Amino acid sequence: MKSVQVTAYGGPEVLRWVDVPNFLPEPDLLKVRVELASVNFADTMVRRGRYLASQPPFTTGIDFMGVVIDAPHEHEALRGRRVIGFGDGTMAEEISVDASMVTPIDDSIDPLFAAAAPLVLCTALELIDRAGRLKPGERVAIYAASGGVGRSLIRLARAYGAGEIFALVGNSDKAQQSLEVGADHALIYRGPDAVDYSAEILSKTDGHGVDLIFNSVAGTTFDSDFKMMANFGRLVVFGISSGDPGNAPSNLLHPTSRSVIGYSFSNLRRNRPYEVKPVLRRAVDQLEQGMEFEIAGVFPPVAADRAHQLLESGESSGKILIDFRNL
To answer: For position 53, what pLDDT does the model report?
Structure first.
């Protein structure tokens, strides 16, 4: 069979669509024929050797949609079912995954939306519920709001009754896209057109600030966050796309009862795998209720390098998928 492999740490050019040995049957795991897999920011970091990963060569990919082609006796009901879920090295024609990491999905759901959902929608649900504890009426700010997680956060925050949603984006096109998804305001936080967004948020909220911030950037954005975060506010950190950690001085926390909360869905998968399936079921519920995803591009596996280039360019809006269905 074939898979998309990281042949060495480096840029997108290190990705190759290559023959790999068929894996040996593992009696306790599901065997899945992959139909679509999504490209995530974490994939680019692993490819560059910045996240924990095996030594190259290794197969990349975190989440997928596919069809179960073999299953142990206790999971026989999954045989032949379409599932979404998580695995290690999902960008391959066939993968072996634990049943706790997948959930069935109805064939009536758009396959592109289904494939786009696992990591971004599960992450957004956990950020809203477990980490952020969003309450109706609260004001919310979302960094990288035009990306996959960002758009899901906008939609979920609106559905959960957020009072006002501020989308923080990289350019005017992404600002417009965020407004179309459901944000009340869109502000450019980086690049040549960046504004003093913390000051604008304070102005638009009569000095109150925002109650909840979702930050996947870190670095110096923390300085702005503490200017625009309300008393009793929460700063939820779930990434470090700037490449630099953010600093949170304790004297900016306890006098105002503010909190900094970290979250990683990958950490949940590694350390509390028994909690993954319920989150996946909630993601499927959202899809069945009409949750949609903007699809920025669909590439064949031989063009996985171009998919990574598009994601890292910062010019894409929405999810990028690798399609294994017509090989």
So the answer is: 64
Distance of alpha carbon 85 from alpha carbon 101, whole angstroms: 5
Which residues sit opposite 104 in a β-bridge?
83
Provide the edge-to-edge strand list for the sheet that holds 139-143. 185-188, 164-169, 139-143, 210-215, 229-237, 259-262
Q: Are 97 and 154 in contact (CB under 8 A)?
A: no
- pLDDT tens for 224-270 read 999 999 999 999 999 988 889 999 999 999 999 999 999 999 999 99
Rounded Cα distance between 53 and 276, Å, is 21
Paired tokens of 158: 């609106």
Of 266, 281, 301, which marks where a domain is finished? 266
- Together in a domain, 43 and 180: no
Number of domains in the chain: 2
What type of residue sits at position 202?
L
**Mean pLDDT of the region 303-322:** 90
CATH number for position 54: 3.90.180.10
Beta strands in 80-155 (DSSP E): 82-86, 94-97, 102-104, 139-143
* Cα separation of the two ends of the chain: 11
> pLDDT for 38-57, tens place per residue?
999 889 989 998 776 678 99
293 phi and psi, to 5 degrees?
-135, 140
